[in-house]
Amino acid sequence: MNSYRQDDWAASPSYPSTVNEPYLMGTGVVTAEDTGTRPLSPPHSHADPMLAWCYRGTVWVHLQDARWRLAPGQGVWIPAHTPHTAHHEADSTGCYTYIPDSALITPIDGITRVLVPRAVQEMLLHLGINDMPTDLRVRIQSVLIEMLQQPLPEAASEWGEVPMPADERVAALVQTVLADPGDPRSAIELFLAHGLHERTVLRIF
């Protein structure tokens, strides 16, 4: 699904913060009806760190050299100014929470896995659709940030990054396999279909 080339990543725009004081965060919700299964947008970055998390179905977060598969309750922190995009599988809902560096307990310096408990998910969504006094909203946001920056339990170590080879010679092959993991063709048949020699592919991987 990630069909962007290195030039696309290098040219990715950076968007300014959308979080205004005194607030500490903002969350966007994207459903399958909004985009289908295509990538949400070309690669881009944000001035604030972003937590991408899955509410329903399966959400894929793409970086230049890797991608992350998120199931409900799973998320990844993406540092500010880190190019990325995402796509959602059918009937999936992904959420994107932006938090300025100044509001974080500890800086987000690298891609970091995080569990988003169901209660936290619902409160993040509740904040987005319900009015409340500003001081109450800010207090709730502060507590949610603390919960989202808790250490990841060891039990969650089995999910995470799917490495993506950076060599563009195999980019089309990789996308074919990811788009249809059940393709009945053998590895050799797939290599030949993309004009690749087996030794070339093995060297790259």
UniProtKB/TrEMBL annotation:
InterPro entries: AraC-bd, RmlC-like_jellyroll, RmlC_Cupin_sf. One of its GO terms (molecular function) is DNA binding. Residues 29-98 form the AraC-type arabinose-binding/dimerisation domain. GO terms for biological process: regulation of DNA-templated transcription. This is AraC-type arabinose-binding/dimerisation domain-containing protein. Keywords: DNA-binding.
